[in-house]
């Protein structure tokens, strides 16, 4: 399995400020557009679709544009711009670094405050549990989130601490700390 960017896990969704999945935290000045990417890391099997939510909370902001991966050809559900889905006709090509860009946003902050990004389940999910979903060969499977928990941010602008550090621990190692 490849190890893309900050997140070595398979089928893991994150928001990054580069297409390689290495930058999930940065400083952004007000009224200067910032590009952010919804990326799925290290696809476990061929995949041609996804569904998830991405909420942006904190700083006042505008989403200037939203662009899907060219294999999608769809737009967000009307009236619910935080929900994203794509069911393509062919599998997403996986670059050598393992990071597949699903959605690209241009975001404009109107204040020098923190803006957090959270990833969760879709409004009417294919699978229950509040997690993002991936689809390959007509079979839906759960995706993970880079922070390890849908209640924690996966990325932030103007944050004091980055939500997902460059030091990655396996879930078992983290559980071991509390035994």
Written description of the protein model:
By secondary structure, the chain is mainly β. The chain is 3% helix and 38% strand. It contains one helix and twelve strands. The longest helix is centred in the last third of the chain and has 6 residues, at 171-176. The protein is globular. The chain starts with 11 loop residues before the first strand and ends with a helix.
Characteristics:
single chain, 179 residues, mainly beta, seven-stranded mixed sheet, 12 strands
Write a concise synopsis of the structure shown:
The protein has 179 residues and is mostly beta strands. It is built from 1 helix and 12 strands; from the N terminus they run E-E-E-E-E-E-E-E-E-E-E-E-H. 3% of the residues lie in helices and 38% in strands.
Strand content: 35-45%
Q: Please provide the ordered H/E string of secondary-structure elements.
A: EEEEEEEEEEEEH
Mean pLDDT: 85
Q: Summarize the main sheet.
A: 7 strands, mixed
Write the layout of secondary structure elements.
Elements: E1 12-16, E2 25-26, E3 34-41, E4 49-58, E5 61-68, E6 83-87, E7 99-109, E8 115-120, E9 133-136, E10 139-142, E11 144-145, E12 155-157, H1 171-176
Parallel strand pairs: 1-11, 2-12
Antiparallel strand pairs: 1-3, 3-7, 4-6, 4-8, 4-9, 5-7, 8-12, 9-10
């Amino acid at each position: 399995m490849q190890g893309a960017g900050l997140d070595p896990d398979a089928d893991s969704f994150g928001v990054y400020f580069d297409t390689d999945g290495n930058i999930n935290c940065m400083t952004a000045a007000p009224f200067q557009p910032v590009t952010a990417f919804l990326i799925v890391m290290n696809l476990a099997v061929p995949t041609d679709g996804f569904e998830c939510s991405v909420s942006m909370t904190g700083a006042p902001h505008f989403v200037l544009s939203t662009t899907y991966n060219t294999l999608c050809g769809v737009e967000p559900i009307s009236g619910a711009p935080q929900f994203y889905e794509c069911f393509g006709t062919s599998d997403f090509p996986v670059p050598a670094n393992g990071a597949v860009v699903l959605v690209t946003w241009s975001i404009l902050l109107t204040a020098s405050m923190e803006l957090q990004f959270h990833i969760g389940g879709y409004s009417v999910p294919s699978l229950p549990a509040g997690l993002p979903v991936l689809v390959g060969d007509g079979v839906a499977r759960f995706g993970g989130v880079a922070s390890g928990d849908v209640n924690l941010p996966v990325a932030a602008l103007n944050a004091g601490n980055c939500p997902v550090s460059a030091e990655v621990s396996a879930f078992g190692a983290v559980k071991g700390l509390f035994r």
